[in-house]
Amino acid sequence: MATIYDVAKAAGVSPKTVSRVINGDAPVGINTRAKVEKAIETLGFVPSLAARTMRSNKSGLVGMITGAISLAPDSSEFGGLPDLIIVQRVQKVLEDNGMSLLISDTGGKQERIPDLMRTFTEHRVEGMIFVADYHKKVALPDIPTGTKLVLANCYDEAGTPSVLPHDRLGQKMLVEALIAKGHRRIAYLSLSNDIDATRLRTAGYRDALESAGLAFDPALVIPADTRMSDPQAEAQLLWDAIQRIFGEPEPPTAICFGNDRIAMRAYGILRTRGIQVPEDISVAGFDNHRLIAETLFPQLTTVELPYAAMGVRAAQMLLALIAGEEAPREPQLVSGPVCWRDSVLPRPTNITHISSLGRKRQ
Hints:
With about 350 residues, the protein is α/β, with parallel strands linked by helices. It folds into 3 domains: about 5-35, no CATH class; about 60-165 and about 305-335, Rossmann fold; about 165-305, Response regulator (Rossmann fold, 3-Layer(aba) Sandwich). It contains 12 helices and 14 strands. Strand 13 (about 350-355) and strand 14 (about 360) form a beta hairpin. Helix 1 crosses helix 2 (about 15-25), helix 1 (about 5-10) crosses helix 3 and helix 7 runs parallel beside helix 8 (about 195-210). The longest helix has 16 residues, at about 195-210. It is elongated, with a radius of gyration of 28 Å.
């Protein structure tokens, strides 16, 4: 492998001159530069990144730890939106800013995280991004002073700069949209109760009801999913939840599901009960997983889970920290729109009929 000394000898210049050409840190004559560049090309010389990093204290490298690659859903299944979207957007922003992204996948083993972070530190990365597979609290080991860290789709007790989906606002906007369509009895069949998204989205659901002056009915809010990989339990929980809400004295006219995957399963259950979507019941999901939402019939109204925007924001935040800007004190919440499709029908307004007994509303 050619060295800087080989290049200097071939070009007939000093190693210092070669260094100036490579680093661009001092003026070099046009003819001399041409000789050095020709020697570099002829010898196939590759400058030492480690040496340049030690001189400048800037490697131009960012490390990312994720499970998006190994845990991406199989193409034969309708999984949730993969956090791979966050990874893709982070990489694009860093590339546009002249940074290189090193990606390490956990393989689903959280115990690998300390070793992966240590490896990145040894490679003198200027910053790291940790991407979680869903909105949750994490506990990560300390990193050396001076190395910046941003969390995407997660947060920690230490207040590390983070980017999160605005779950509460997303659910609030969806329920407000259903109310604006005339729905007053709206059920929420949520994800598992032990995750942050459920807590926040339930709060958003209640916010919308309160703003519209509608009473909260706990009988209409039921967990219909589990974090365990147990398809049988998930199917039974969803069936039971649908059975319970339709057994209410005043059944709902619309159902919000915890995500699009649950909504997809619910379509089949509703059809077996002879309930048509949206003629008999309006249905909405959460995620805007287009493989599901746009292929269901009728197509599914849902909320955009803004993973692409979260990836961009996480990369922008890290670049700002590397540039010396102050870290934000609160997580940056990223919201997405309600994607309106055919699974929701407006409720007819009350019609007043005049009879011999007076006015009657239907």
